Amino acid sequence: MRTTGVLWAAGLGMLLAVGVASVVSAAAATPKRGGTLTYTIPADAPASFDGHRETSFATVHSIAPFYSVLIRINPDNPSSTTDFVCDLCTEMPKPTDDGRTWAFKIRPDVKWHDGSLLTADDVATSWRYVVNPPEGISSARESFYLMVDRIEVPDRQTVTFRLKFASNAFLPALADPFAVIYKKAILEKDPRWYEKNIMGSGPFRFTSYEVGQSIKGVRNPDYYRKGQPYLDGFIALYAPKQAVRVDAIRADRAAVEFRGLPPSARDQLVKELGDKVTVQSSDWNCGSVVTVNHRRKPFDDVRVRRALTLAVDRWRGAPSLAKIANVRTVGGIVFPGSPMAATREELEKLPGYWPDIDKSRAEAKRLLREAGAEGLSFEMLNRNVDQPYKFVGTWLIDEWSKVGLRVTQRVVPTGPWFEAMRSGNFEVVLQANCHGVVNPLTDVGNYLPHTVYTENYGQFEDQQEIDLYDEMVRETDVARQRGLMRRYETYVLDTAAHTMHALWWHRIVPQRSYVKGWKISPSHYINQDLANVWLDK
Amino acid sequence: MYRYIINRLVLVIPTLVGAAALVFALMRLIPGDICVVRLASGGGTFNAHAVAVCHAEVGLDQSVPVQFVNFVIGLFRFDFGPSMWSGKPVSEEILARLPISLEVALLATVIAVLIAIPLGTISALKQNSWTDVVVRTVAIAGIATPSFWLGILVILAILDITQAISGTPWMPPIDYVSLWDDPIRNLSIVICPAVTVGYRYSAVTMRMTRSAMLEVLREDYIRTARAKGLIEKLVVNRHALKNALLPVVTLIGIEFAFLIGGLVVTEQVFNLNGIGRLFVLAVQNQDYTLTQALVMLTVVVFVLCNLIVDVLYAWLDPRIRYA
Fold first, then answer.
1. Strand partners, A282
2. Taking the domain A33-238+514-535, which CATH number applies?
3. Mutate which of A54, A55, A447 to disrupt the B interface (most B C-beta within 10 Å)?
4. Which residues of A, range 263-282, sit inside 8 Å of B by Cβ?
């Protein structure tokens, strides 16, 4: 009897606990309106406010809350690489004409911050400037849209993209967060107006900017998503020094820094703030890549290039490095979270990814011996940036020493680093491939020879690789395209061993626990309009 | 005197042209390209066409001699053009940062002078006493301690102490507001960097004051002043200190000029958006126009500081005449 009573009481207690937890959880999930979010941007200042021409997060983190885009990655599911939703359009269209025509209906209720109505003409003109800018105007991502033939406005509320060929790369490219929508009248009057000024249709209205200090915005009362944004406003503070940003979160001078902090900073904040800080983390669509200068002997020999990758124990190195650096995941050339990425079984067939590192290093030594490059000494060029360049560089040198390679490191500032790569004044260089929206087909274009992708510094030509890539890009069947991606990957990392992929980066964002609604994504460029962010204070 | 000042100001012109030629040449010797740095700064993709468009925008498609001629013409018109990085007028970029650096430099100088001159004088007057030992120890510690490291310690100490006392860590604001808009908030922002920099500054000045005072106190005219029965306060203040201040004033002038553009790391540690941070950014970004303008500003500040020091010499030592 007594036991039964205890069980009943326990059961009731559990039910109550679950109930209370559900109520608390439901209450916590209901966004509260009001408050000002203060966050830091780890940069001195954006070069300009023009998203179309800039490539830096400093620009996106400064301007995204002021603008709208045509489509975007679902802000409630930003870790997905395929969940695209409308921002300015009414619904995601089904392509016609064998995937070559995409017609987007534009919302009729969108107002510019100056009160005028946004139309399909504004959207189309903005996209024309991105896809095919007029002479003398720069569009940093023009090459993403090679498949676009023309952009039409059949009526006031429709924008139609006509493609030269159907491509699975089109939709992710269209969700680019830098491709913000500008007002046609302003663009046509002065195409460079948006470099220094801000006027959008996004959730926040621009109030002030103090160069190198802060940028501020207030809620747009006419925002087309009713009820949003939840915040009264935001203040973004430019703080290039990491210690300042960490201290600012600790002292609540800032609630969050959206780009990402290293593990040491995360650990420090968690230790000092306990449950007042929440940490979100994700694989990052940035990879550490080693580029080999094919014009320098003996790196013209594929056996030497293959030995470099065979010597590196990624599977054991990754978890150790993840404790101190912004890297974590072993992967091939495609972002690990993408359906196009290689599985572990597929990876383990590639040199450098074999599960048996002793066998791998024995093979590396054999190849070096065969190529007459035993005990080879060379210099690795590296960028003077701690996270994760210098950490990964030091790790690689140690790994290479295990097959008898003697490697020194030349660490230089960003300017000379690029100059050395562009002039071919290096033997081996550690680089990063960073992208926004995960778009495997365009992202892996970085591995193509210089004649196709001008910023590949490997100094090689390879028609076979170009043909493989072209075949893959034009394939629209997802399963067949995935198969072609494996062939391309095997070619890049093994057959020709033009490059080696070290590790994928890991994004860690500690935030004050009262910041709600923001979800981490694989890129620090996306999901930054702050419309769904609220403060639980 | 006026003639001397005018001559000195005229001499500024060849100094500026020399500095201009030097910085123009040096900037172009640094490997790298502002357009590539800019386009690649986010790790994104770009092509050769984008680089070419950028070159045309910032004027790097012109030949180097044409660039130099344009620069020199701009120099004489006080027009350095737009920053290659931001496109904003260089004057706007500098004027946005100058008040911060100027305020920290002035406050650090006041702190340094208030600490250094009395302590340096006392140290000299009480040579080899325990007071002298303490003052010298403080001074040597100040010289040996890097300002940025001290800055980090100061912030950490504030955070830890406030957390221990109130349970909530506190630190000064990291967004600058001007003295006129909010004096209290402004002071809470600049006081820590000023103290941090002022400590090192005062240490150097203290050492100089002490050694100059020791030298002057052994002069015949000091002995004469004492022999004729002047009270020690007058001997020290009117005869010794005034003469000992000559090298101290020189040092203060040089240090002040240095602080305007040289607080690079301190500005980063305290998130101050000053001239030093802008200088580093301009060089890193290979922003030729901005770097050139900043070097010119530094040269002008140094020349003006030296001029003020020279004028002060004449006031401190009536024997010095600039006829």
1. A507
2. 3.40.190.10
3. A55
4. 272
